Amino acid sequence: MGMNPTPINSHSSTSHVKSSIRIGSVWGIPIELHITFLLLMVAVFFLSYPDLYSFALTLFLFVFVVIHELSHSVVARHYNIKVRDIVLYPIGGVSEIDEIPDRPSVEWRMAIAGPLVSLLMGGILFALGQVISIETPAVPPFTTAGSLMLDLANINLLLGAFNLVPAFPMDGGRVLRAFLAERMKFSDATRYAATIGKILGMVFAVFGALYDFWLIIIGLFVYIGADEEEQSTIISTAIAGIRVKEVMYQEVVSARPETKLADAMDMMFRARYHDLLIEKDGIFQGIVAWDEIKKIKPEERTGMQVGQLPAKHISIFPDESILEAYKIMAREGIDLLPVVDRQVPDKVVGAVTNESVAYAYEKSKSVR
User: Measured between alpha carbons, how far is 55 from 90 in angstroms, rounded to an integer?
Assistant: First the structure.
């Protein structure tokens, strides 16, 4: 499918239930398989048994989607944009990046890379199919060519062509947004591309109700993806102008390194924090993420000190954008980000939470 910036949702937490499974990494980029893709593979396995040819094509699809997404990542890295992971879905993949490129010319280059690579692979496999004959069983709707090379070519050509459709969440939608963003506000460009995506999703669903159930699934996926992209961009654009000092909490509960973990957790829960801020004699020591705390068995928490846990020494300044704060929180997997004095970086003057992000969005609406 394409590149997806860190999602912004004022009603959600950065701590969430994982719906995908890590299966490896390439160039340091984690590759994850969404649970729906796994269910698809299991279903195809049983439906195609005993010849399993359709299942083999599904495995090839998996490989081709990885290559498609890695092509996005190669271009992103060329422009020094960090790719956090690649998640594979039944109708494509998503490369999670930290932020939308500032220049539209960079976004369309990143977006177009995937479809072009898929179409190129499709062309090469089609050419090979003319000289290499590997006959295969006919098992509609997964194949109609009767040749392995031609079937693989068709998969790539379909993957490339589908992603060129100029509507979110496909790559073509990002190309369209980049084109429009050269001529209008970025938020308006996003709204146009997302609207086309939602209309396309409804068209898929209607045709699916008449002809093929799978088109309903694809339509829903396209509609939801387009809507999420639109909301994410609108909120990101809205809160970009809000400073951290405008929405941060000035009174912050913290623990000392020698505090017992069980006591520190009681403090966390009373303060409604998901993470633990550590200070010693007024000096910022770091923040312990909830994911690290969960690794400690309950019976061990009474005897363990907070300072024994790995801490992240990350923070933000009061005059920075709340959007930048959210990006850090999403990237680091934390719900509490310390705010420190720019002149005295070891002095905590407040904290940003997900509620701060939600408040920033509400505040931005009142000044628009």
Answer: 13
Spatial CA neighbour of 66 closest among 93, 43, 106, 99: 93
Decide the pairing of beta strands 276-280 and 2-5.
unpaired
Read off the pTM. Answer: 0.66
CATH fourth-level superfamily of 244-367: CBS-domain (3.10.580.10)
Structure tokens of 54?
């359709």
- Give how far Cα 62 sits from Cα of 34, 57, 175, 217, 312, Å: 11, 9, 24, 18, 35
115-139 confidence digits (pLDDT tens): 999 999 999 999 988 887 777 666 6
Q: Which residues are catalytic?
A: 69
Q: Any idea where the domains of the chain sit in the sequence?
A: 2-239, 244-367
| Nearest by Cα to 117 from 165, 160, 58 | 160
Phi, psi of 87 (to 5 degrees): -115, 130
Distant-in-sequence contacts of 122-126, Cβ < 8 A, 24+ apart: 122/153, 122/154, 122/155, 122/156, 122/157, 122/159, 122/160, 123/153, 123/157, 124/153, 125/149, 125/150, 125/152, 125/153, 125/156, 126/150, 126/153, 126/157
> Do 69 and 61 contact (CB within 8 A), yes or no?
no
DSSP for residue 5: E
Distance CA 275, CA 256 (A): 14
Degrees to nearest 5, angle at CA 108 with 102 and 110: 85
Which strand (E) or helix (H) includes residue 23? Answer: strand 20-26
Instruction: Point out the least confidently predicted range of 161-165, 239-243, 244-248, 305-309.
Output: 239-243
DSSP state string for 62-121: HHHHHHHHHHHHHHHHHTTPPEEEEEEETTEEEEEESS--SSHHHHHHHHHHHHHHHHHH
169 upstream amide cis, omega within 30 of 0 = yes
Q: 98 and 331 in contact (C-beta within 8 Å)?
A: yes
Query: In the numeric block, which tokens belong to residue 165?
Result: 């459709």
**8 Å CB contact between 287 and 312:** yes
Please provide the DSSP assignment of 260-293 as one string. Answer: BHHHHHHHHHHHT-SSEEEEETTEEEEEE-HHHH
Return the sign of the alpha-carbon dihedral for residues 266, 271, 273, 279.
negative
